[in-house]
Amino acid sequence: MQARISNPAVVIPEAMQPVLDLLKAVRTGKVPSATLELVHLRASQINGCSYCVVAGTQSARKAGETEERLAAVAAWREAPYFTDAERAALALTEAATRLADRSDPVPDDVWNAAAEHYDEKQLASLTLMIGVTNMFNRFNATTRQVAGSGW
């Protein structure tokens, strides 16, 4: 396998620092790192971004995630490993990643479930993480970045 081009944020280096700054800001929202890692991994799975799935799994392991939980993220609804708050974040991730799949992309029940567990700043953090992940997924899938290759 070979990438079509280098990652666009590397080709245009002025793009990388603002993205990294945004990711740094996301982490100030007080959402547990493990939850942010799960959100990143789930969105990347949905989008079929092998680069981000591999990188996200590695990052989650470094953050202390277990193999059981990582293996079960794709089937989180049926797995006993996730808290109610994590489930709400994963449901929000799926809805916000699959915007075109329904007429009401993020239904009130999904949003309200997340709002039961996260305050406004945390919801902003989750929403930004989902958005940044989807952006990276689109860069990497479009340019066919090779999983495990680094930039």
Automatic annotation (TrEMBL):
Q: Which InterPro entries match?
A: AhpD-like, AhpD_core, CMD-like
Name-wise, this protein is: Alkylhydroperoxidase AhpD
* Keyword Zinc-finger included in the entry's annotation: no
Q: According to the lineage, what is the superkingdom?
A: Bacteria
- Alphabetical list of Pfam families matching this protein: CMD
Q: Which Gene3D superfamilies match?
A: AhpD-like
Q: Any idea which GO molecular function terms this record carries?
A: peroxiredoxin activity
Keywords noted in UniProt = Oxidoreductase, Peroxidase
